[in-house]
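Study this one:
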Amino acid sequence: MAEVYRSRVYTDRPEYADFEPPEKFEAIKSIIAKRLVQHPNAICSYSGGADSDIMIDLIEQTRQLFELPPVKYVFFNTGLEMQATKDHVKATAEKYGVEIETIRPKISIVQASRKYGIPFVSKIMSYGLEEWQKKKLPLSIADEYDQAEDKIAKRAELKARYPKCESLINFLCCCNAKGEPRPDIQLVINSSKYMRDFIGEYPPDFNISAQCCDFCKKQPAHNVQKDYEMIITGERRDEGGMRSVPKKKEATQNGNTMCFSQNSDGQYRLKPLYYVSDTDKAWYKDYYGIRYSDAYEVYGLTRTGCCGCPISYKAVDDLEKIRLYEPNVVKAAWAIFGKSYEYRQKYNAYKKARMDKEKEMKFHIEGQLRF
């Protein structure tokens, strides 16, 4: 039986990752306390979303319990935020008696989208297609690579033919830097099924880019976080079946976990919720009576993030849920991202038609074999 690969999220997890919710959250509070004592000059990004609500409650409970100094909280307003989110940020600050500073980007989401383009399907897909649109490599290089007997030699030849295009060649040909086929990894175009064929048949008539995220979130975050010793974020990795996978012995012996790390610039990162599952989160919300923003409790969304971001496969459906309550935000999202929504709908229809056709052909062939 072939060995199944498991990521470090599974194998290097600490003991408390397998605890039941009550004990798990007590362990997390201890970790927060320890790290805040070691690194009191800390800043925490608060988004107004569900994960952030759990995180700020944990931090503030811990601070009160151990009489720790205040944490700096910041909310990054991209310029396209629901009123429900902005109201919730204000209400949360009042609830805990803390300040949550609103940070706005120097370049708005409208300006960034107009200048660079808009996201499509995912950040990886957006970065790859942005480079393809700029460098104009023919999609036929992928056919050359697919048909080549010596794919490593073909990759080297393509690299020589198209200098300074290595990552784009890998993206379009679905291979790694050595030239080895890697069709199943996320960094290639066909990580979204039939995407290469789709853009060949229906080239996008708009600029694709995920740089709006860089300008509206990443850069403002870097600017405000650079003067702090420790950055606290609400990143989670909810992976099912974690307990069924054996841990490495050295993982717990060395304390080698993924919820706390140090960057190359010396800054520390604490991710208190890294090993918190959806089930754990639901327990915490119920036990401590946490109320999420109206975006969840009234509108019926399951996530917030950047309002209307086309990277979410549910963006259009979510906008329809929001429309009744905040029609102007929905109108703005369509004005900014509309072409991406429509292109994704076209891609989804294309993908479905291709899959249906392949299924029909397979059924026909199997039927003939049985006959």
